[in-house]
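Why do we care about 3D structure at all? Because function follows from shape, and shape follows, mostly, from sequence. That is the central idea of this module. The next example makes it concrete: a single protein chain, its amino acid sequence, and then its structure expressed as tokens.
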Amino acid sequence: MVNTYDLGPNNTRTVTAIYKKAYIKETKPITPTKTAIIETDKTIQPITIQTTVPAQSKKSINVDILSTYANVLDKGYKSADMLKKVANKFYFENDFEAAAKYYLELFTVEENSEPVFYLRCAKSLKAINQPEKAEEITKLFESKNATLAMTKK
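And the structure:
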């Protein structure tokens, strides 16, 4: 710490370097390590080790969320978004009976659905041999698609 009362003339401090002779410590040179050579008539056989790899367990679980949604829907909770996702899942997996079931439930929950859902429902109904309902849904698709085309113009 510097004492401020020890300032020189004109309130300045003069620093003078003091050089001392460096102290050099003598060290002994490094001696090489001794190696022992033992001569024998015997040959050394390699050792065999048997190892078993532990079975790895999965760090995560795959949850099929759409199947969970389907279980929730079957228990009674109905949401338009869940119905769309589950119906699309079954439609694209070619399970048309389940797809038609969920598309028809979607139309009861959400009356103003996108036209593509009506088309998919109609195709699902045709696939499970219900042509009368399929024709009815196809007409709904055409009317929704026509009104959609009119609003875009």
